[in-house]
Specification:
PBP_GOBP_sf; mainly alpha; 61% helix; Recoverin, domain 1; two-stranded antiparallel sheet; 139 residues
Length: 139
């Protein structure tokens, strides 16, 4: 369970969650996970995770024709969330920092760019908005 802090607008709707589940299910059909009996190595598991992530991002239209991540789309999505204007500006500033670091560190590795950018943004947005993971209610 997540406490969205000052940014409840970022909580995905049930429709968004459902669409994401469908995309992931389809990507898993295209890229079946390694079988446990094959005792996959951490590298094999990491590659599978990257394959699923890449499939999902491509399915959702996050890459352009040159397979470059659409950083501007990410920024636009934040702008459309109707957050407090001060929070939006802080997040947009972090967007530029995270984008710059990702492009600089992984100039020719678009998947690593996306991973770094998303991790950077997740961390910054969590801090700016005060997002916290809270324990599920006790039964």
């Amino acid at each position: 369970q997540i406490n969205w802090g000052e940014c409840p607008q970022l909580e995905p709707t049930q429709e968004e969650k459902s669409k994401k589940q469908t995309v992931i299910a389809n990507c898993l059909k295209e890229n079946p996970p390694p079988k446990p009996e094959d005792e996959p190595s951490p590298e094999v598991l990491e590659k599978h995770h990257a394959d699923i992530t890449t499939c999902a991002l491509k399915t959702e239209g996050w890459f352009d024709d040159n397979n470059k991540y659409k950083f501007d789309r990410a920024k636009t999505e934040i702008e459309q969330k109707a957050l407090n204007p001060e929070i939006t500006e802080k997040i947009k500033g972090k967007h530029e920092e995270c984008k710059g670091e990702a492009e600089e560190r992984f100039a020719d590795d678009f998947i690593s760019q996306v991973k770094l950018y998303q991790a950077c943004m997740d961390q910054n947005i969590s801090t700016i908005c005060g997002i916290q993971i809270v324990a599920p209610p006790q039964a």
